[in-house]
Fold:
Amino acid sequence: MAQKDAAHMEKMEFQTEAKQLLHLVIHSLYTHKEIFLRELISNASDALDKVRFESLTSPGMLDENEELAIRIKLDKKAKTLKISDNGIGMTRQEVIDNIGTIARSGSRAFLEKLTGDQKADSNLIGQFGVGFYSVFMVASSVKIVTKRAGSDDPAVQWESGGETDYAISDADKTGHGTEITVYL
Structure:
C-alpha cells in the first residue's frame, strides 16, 4: 500500500515475507555488526563496475576525465556515516525494485537455503540481495539519495528505520551515483 503526504513523499510498506526476512537479517544472520560496512562498500564497488561497463556502449555517460570513486565519511558529532559513490546510481523504479523489495532475487529461496551455520549463511547474503539490510543492525535509520547515470529522471531519496515501511521521494542531487547516510 502506498500513501503520499503533503511533501510528496510516498510511504510504502515492505511485504509480509520481506518483513520476516528483514528481521532475520538484522537480528540473527550476522555475528559481527561491522559487516554492514563491507556490504555497502561492495554495493558501491558494483555500482562503479556497472557505470564503467555501461559507459563502453553509451558514449557521454561519463565525463572523459571523471575518476570513479567510493568515499566514506564519519561524522562523530552528528553520529552519521556516509558512503557515497559516483557509480551507476538508480532510478525511482530501480530503488523500489532493489531497495524497497527485500531479497528481490527470491526471499523464499533464500530462507530455504539457510543452514543455521552463521558463517556459511553469511556467504549467501550477496547472492540474494539482502546484504544492504545488515545496515539496520547499527542504524536507527538510513537515507539513500541516488541518481541514475545517463538518465533524465530526477534523483530519488529513500528513507527507512528498518521496521515495516519506507518513504520515497524526488531529491536534489547533481551528478550520478548514490549517497547512503547511516544514522547511528
